[in-house]
């Protein structure tokens, strides 16, 4: 029984971060229709950001969030402006061809990022050590301080995103665009800016998730590949383009992973995830939370 | 002669010229083992990418998991040979059967849904295969991989001392894969796949049995990949989960086609000829630089090519030529399939509708 | 008495809380040309989509001859002989005219050679042989609409559904398309036309069905329907005033 509770708690705590970077991916897909293959690598970048700030300036990742968020936002803007926009500006290109172009270009960006990181940091794992070291014992269930704090931060950041989507003009334009691609201009916002902002915010959320994750998860240049798959599965489970769905699905994915790892085998945790993914595709391809959209 | 046959004839003619050139390559160019090995690998991956082109290039259902079929081909032959001492040629056949069975299963789950689900599912599935082959090591050799027994020169067992033989086998494989995609492109299946890619709803309204067509496309698409995997296995003699099912191979098969031109008959050919040698060259010549530098260069080359033309090299306009019509476009240098002046005149009567 | 080709009974389509089509009943006879009119948002296109299989009815049945249409996917409906065009042209733009038409022919012909022959036949019928090798995206809108009709005809349909063919066309182009529709119907092809340009409907239709807010409010010969007070109130009172005002 304790094992089960322990497993669920661990799953939910890591799932919050999955939910955060997956909501970034679903936001990007929902608005720009870009399937961002470099998404996992932006988690990795956030993690190395935390490692670097900690090693060079002794900055805790909790404060590091701010510079990492800003840098991630800017990187997202650059990728959008330089790469995604380029495919749309080619003369006579069809929407489908442009989307396929974006797919391969983000894939190349992924290879680029992970290998630049490999050149700089080498293949061995790096970690932020000794920040938030406490472990709480709650009725026999162990909760690491780092995991708990990370989860709370994920929750707060997601809450801010949700509020921004509900309350701000850009948020309204973004929600309108998810439902209907031509809606942004009707709300009075330049659709190109909506695309750029959504992409950058999506990357920013992802960078933040990575930065916090670094408090307890060691990073290597290829760590992102695993997160990419997690994000894909999460986004489909939550319903493509559904931000709230992605966050909730992130929690579920965390739980499924932990349950498989504890009760089946550690190295098969992503297989359990995939089985659930297939099940969702067969039974509810519109996502398990369809009908309760963030924009509703 | 109508324009369609003209294009096809030119494609066939050019194909023959290319085939003769490639076949004679060992006689006048390939002198070192390195060049021979690069050329052989180029042809093997070209075949897999040509297969990819059928469902993804023509049909628009982008697969990021064609490594599934490649890996199944490689592992099936290897496992049957190592554990059951089955003849390697039979192993290739079984590999194809296994790959086709999986294609049907995968297609049944994903091809009724929007294309993106297919992309995500194929990518996730290939990584799952990588994990599973690593986990059940009694059968697959686990993370260590499987090594074929050294048989020396045993043509009956798909084993040759002379590596030029493998080169020719790979060449025949690539040529067959090319012919298959060419036949698909000019067939009803090819036309219907292209229509699905262009506008699925309009294709349905035109009576195209969308699911059946996609599934057929996927099955045909899986075969060259599976055979390529088997030939790769026999050639290299070793396979591990990552080189069979890993993300690198999974994406490489697609990237080759995209760089050359997805949906273009010659796209995978051009893409493979550029990317595979580039990668092999970088791997061997940049070994003095820090790890990762080779792939940084590789990624930059892909980025630059697709930044210039997101539809790939076959869509690049040389000089001031008009864009070419359909996807059965001839390669640069081939006769221009663009309708000549009679058609320009023919367009005139229609303007009366507007007058 | 002519034979009934299409029979729609109790057709209702709901999207969530919105009732787009509400309990509509009508029949179309062999060789007839039925016009469907109604203000924007009246449910015309939704009803079309239901007949073509693109939208699944919430309730009600649709039959062509003895065959049940409702519940089948659009590709099966097309093969049953119901061919359609789209409100905004949806052709395979990067393909040639010949390829567009051959494609739909290929779904009903035994071989590609037969499909190409069928495409040539249709092109000849519509007088557009010269357009065959041209890519669709290079054609003006009026010609694209003709290609869409050709693509539908290649299926050898028993019933042709035309959704707002005249939108975006000038008067001469409109006349041209009207001529095509009359010619096809004169050859015996049963046709349903959705149109918001009233004079087009008046000129073409044997019979008119009027929808408003998803409800069928009138049905009958064009002149009679136009005089129906409910139609005048629902339709003429609102969006159609400018269409009537247009010089014919």
Structure summary:
The complex is a heterotrimer of chains A (296), B (355) and C (248). Chain A contains eleven helices and two strands.
Outline the fold blueprint.
The complex is a heterotrimer of chains A (about 300), B (about 350) and C (about 250).
Chain A lengths: L1 H31 L6 H19 L3 H29 L5 H27 L13 E4 L2 E4 H23 L1 H11 L3 H5 L3 H23 L9 H16 L4 H21 L5 H15 L13
Antiparallel strand pairs in A: 1-2
Helix pairs in contact in A: 1-5, 1-8, 1-9, 1-10, 2-3, 2-4, 2-8, 2-9, 3-4, 3-8, 5-6, 5-8, 6-8, 9-10, 9-11, 10-11
Chain B lengths: L2 H26 L4 H26 L8 H18 L3 H23 L4 H21 L1 H4 L5 E2 L15 H24 L1 H11 L1 H6 L4 H27 L1 E2 L1 H5 L1 H14 L6 H19 L7 H16 L32 H6 L4 H4 L1
Antiparallel strand pairs in B: 1-2
Chain C lengths: L3 E12 L2 E12 L3 E5 L6 H9 L6 E6 L2 E2 L5 H6 L2 E3 L12 H10 L5 H14 L15 H13 L5 E5 L7 H16 L3 E5 L3 H7 L2 E6 L2 E6 L1 H6 L1 H8 L4 H5 L3
Parallel strand pairs in C: 3-8, 3-9, 6-7, 7-8
Antiparallel strand pairs in C: 1-2, 1-4, 4-5, 9-10
Helix pairs in contact in C: 3-4, 3-5
